[in-house]
Amino acid sequence: MAHVAPWKEEMLKELKDLISAGPVVGIVAVDGIPGPQLQNMRRGLRKGSPFIVSKNTLIRLAIEEMDSEKSGLKDLLEHIGQTQNGLIVSKKNSFKLFAELKATESQAPAKGGETATEDIMVKAGDTPFKPGPIVGELQKAGVPAAIMSGKVVIKKDKVLVKAGDTISADIAGALTRLEIFPITVGLKLKSAYEDGTVFGSDILDVDPLVYRSQIIQVASGGFNLAMHIAYATPMTMRPLLTKAHMDAFNLAMNAEVFNSATIDLLISKAQVQMLALASHLEDGLDDDLAGMVRNRPAAPPPGDDGAEQKEAEEKKEEKPEEEAVSEEEAAAGLGALFG
Questions:
Q1: By the 8 A CB rule, do 196 and 190 touch?
Q2: What share of the chain is helix, strand, coil (3-state, %, to 5)?
Q3: Up-side HSE of residue 81: CA atoms within 13 Å toward CB?
Q4: How far apart are CA 176 and CA 111, in angstroms?
Q5: Per-residue pLDDT tens over the stretch 85-133
Q6: From CA 143, how far away is CA 154, in angstroms rounded?
Q7: In 13-23, which positions are buried (b, 16+ CB within 10 angstroms) versus exposed (e)?
């Protein structure tokens, strides 16, 4: 039987105890993080999310042995890869844990040999350098530097390293001199296990603002649909009743149905029409009617007999004031519409 070093047995037990400590278990990449910076990050997480860095073989073994307690935990093995990793456990949900770890990221200078995750570009413009050997150093790295008006400038924009390519030592030195730090350093949650499901980083990397905007958009669309098909819910009842009242009022006015809401407006409309007709008669008007014709209001614009404006004013007075719907209410209303 092969001898197993005591420290490995102790580390394996620590990893298994860690996995048992919380409902969410994650694989965290720690490549390229300087030791002191890594320790600071770990201290910041220990209160709610204990974290252990270990060899990948021990992490794999711990996950395999704990799969019987947490069904589906083995799916984490697909995300270990060849990077240096750690195990993290948390009582937060996977998405909150991802956001917490992403907040540890910061930009660091390249040392040479790293792979660019995106295009690395220098921009045209002045530099803080005085003419001297720096010009040759920048040009050697491919930076289009020159001396103009007694100072070192970059003549045009240029991509020094394309995404996926290796950053050379010369380029790394030039970028550092130009205070361009292309390397993102931080704890990266590669995957997380929760309630029998493993989520990859591509799923966990959610922009809260975009997600919120999408929820509001869906809620707004649902509300508009419910209004269009007259679907009664706590959110739509008041505006539906208001719309029904206005539709009934307009129908009564157009059909000249007399009731307490329309009688004054219909009489006013009839009077305006009568005075308009009387104004075309030269004879046969008594003194009172002739005076009313002379003093009648100026004719409204074509197609408007004056009653419409008064009708609109009456509607405005009778229409209940609608409450402004906040973004939170719009998002919450989605469940009310179709729950």
A1: no
A2: 45, 15, 35
A3: 13
A4: 9
A5: 999 999 989 999 999 898 888 888 888 988 898 999 999 999 999 999 9
A6: 7
A7: ebbbebbeebe
DSSP code for 294: H
Two tokens at 116? 């660019």
Alpha helix locations (H) across 69-183? 94-102, 134-140, 169-177
Per-residue pLDDT band at 317 (split at 50, 70, 90): very low
Distance CA(339)–CA(337), nearest Å, equals: 6
**Measured distance CA(262)–CA(245) in Å, rounded:** 13
Q: Which amino acid is at 21?
A: A
Exposure letters 144-172 (e unless 16+ CB within 10 A, then b): ebeeeeeebbbeeeeebbeeeeebbebbb
3-class DSSP state of 262: coil
Q: Give the global pTM.
A: 0.58
Q: Can you list the domains of the chain with their CATH numbers?
A: 6-105+186-205 (3.30.70.1730), 120-175 (3.90.105.20), 211-338 (no CATH)
